[in-house]
Amino acid sequence: MKQLIAICLSLFFTAALANPAQPYDEAADAQAELTKALSAAQAANKKVLVIFGANWCKDCLELDKSIKGQSAALIASKFIVVKIDVGQFDRNLGIANRYENPIKKGIPAAVVLKPDNSLLYATKAGELSNARKMSDQGIYDFFSQVASQHP
Hints:
Elements: H1 2-18, H2 30-44, E1 47-53, H3 58-68, H4 72-78, E2 79-85, H5 93-98, E3 109-113, E4 119-122, H6 131-149
Parallel strand pairs: 1-2
Antiparallel strand pairs: 1-3, 3-4
Helix pairs in contact: 3-6
């Protein structure tokens, strides 16, 4: 019996480690998450940074890693972040289209909104779609420039 329990626990932990939490919640109600972020931004006097991406996208995963790393303090000081899953470019397209379709030239893509949901900035030329080659410093510099141009 002890061996059976040990095997079950081993399988459970192996599965948990093999499938870590993904940055883009494929089951999320993206509109509800966006509404919640806009409300939080209003309360915190910040902008909303919307990141469009997908869990299959290596550049999206690299961007997520970077904004949780070197860029974390900058992002946290300026933005409320909401990540929106676009699947295989078949999910939440209405939201992307509402903000000048930033995903048209690739993902990840970013939009900066005022708390009243008005658009301040949207990537238009795939600026982040090569995040793996941008380096942490390049991603930091990108968001630092966006933040300074849209105070």
